[in-house]
Amino acid sequence: MAGIYQPGEEKVLSGAYSFLKSFIEEQTTPGLRGKLALPIVADWGPIGEFVRVRNKQAAVNIFGEVEDFDLIWADSIRPSSISIRPTQVLLYRLAGASAKKAFLILVGPSGDCIRVEAKYEGEFGNRLKVAVQPNLMDAALIDILIYLDAELVESQTGATNAELVAAFAGSEYVTLTKISDELPIPNAGTNLADGDSGKSVEATKYTDYLDKLITKKGEYGVFTLGVADAALNAAAQDWTDEQRYKGNYIKFVFGGDANRDKNKADIIQASKDANHMAVINVGSGVKWRGKTYSSSKVAVYIASLAAAMPLNYTMALYITNFDEVTVEWDQDTDLIDLIEAGTLMLNKDNDKVIIQEPVNTLTVPGPDQSSDFGKIRVVDTFDSILLAEEEAGKEWIRKQPNTNSPARRAAFCQMMKEKVFAPLAAIEVIAPDYEYMEDPLYYGQDAIYTPKRSAGHFVAGFRHQDVLEKIYTYNKAK
Asked: Which of 43, 147, 201, 425 measures 20 to 30 Å from 443, CA to CA?
């Protein structure tokens, strides 16, 4: 087990637990980096199943063209400079109650003989066309050809309907069901019909998605729903908080619709309502390649970027591929108000659309937090350390022989410094003066707690190495 504990608390289940407290003046292995999760609405592909992909083409091959894919992999088309993209995307297709598979009934001399049905529900199936023709080599056989628009994508041959059904058993496009033994009459090609993608998705489908996402801990670090529904996004925020308490150090990104994107008060209120270091509120819509995207869709792009951004990089002033922002706020008043309220804003800088400040929604820190927790990179660092500590701790527990002696605890401290903190210091994510030691509240002359004989308590001290985001030059002319 893993998760959060409070000082003085003793857990029942074996595992490695973490407590994070900010010491701004004194002290303060990226397992989930690059991993994104989101539900999609598509015209093709399996419904209600998690599918892992590593690039856009793989996603398109399974689900067809989906608007969200352009946003997830928007930086993949960069002509130059660094391209930051997720290493793994966990997709899950949602569909409303109207979703249906396209189908066609092939007829024989006396009536219906074979039902041809699209493999998946969706309008994509309506693009499939079925042609029946005699086999040129053997008159006793017939060929069934499947076209996607005008392209032949599959053909099978059989002497009986049972053989034809079996031949298409592994098809990526259709399934066949025998109705009678009569072979179908040849035809030049007829499209499947009545396929429905079920794009009007009930709210309960999104909550069901969150319930299933619980089982995918460790397979994603950032997620978004990609919708503007305020109630669904609020539920996802609560769910994120619950998951983090259980040791699932994830982040949630959301936005609103086009109307909210024009309403400064509504954007600010959404950030204030969230007020969470693991929740990012995107306040800007964009225009890109002839399309307009509200902030709920820009949230898909930001979620992808947040998942993929290296720990020693920053999103501050990051140049996107977008053409315009839908609303250009006054940079001396409105933009500052939105950012200070905890809203991630995009802005126009000359002819480029940039990410202005990489902030999350935390503006009123709680106990054991500081204002630094309102920065995405700071939280990324802390989350990476918490996850690495817990994973290293669990591996140590599994090592044999396992004794709770002072020497073993000292060895554990050394291992944590080498495995968790040294790599982060090497890439300048934390300062090199980190420490990991036995907790003096449990060990030594000034201890105030008595540890259980099976427990070890430790303290990690480190300073987050912030990035250079603001440069001031005082020029003197002589």
From this structure: 425
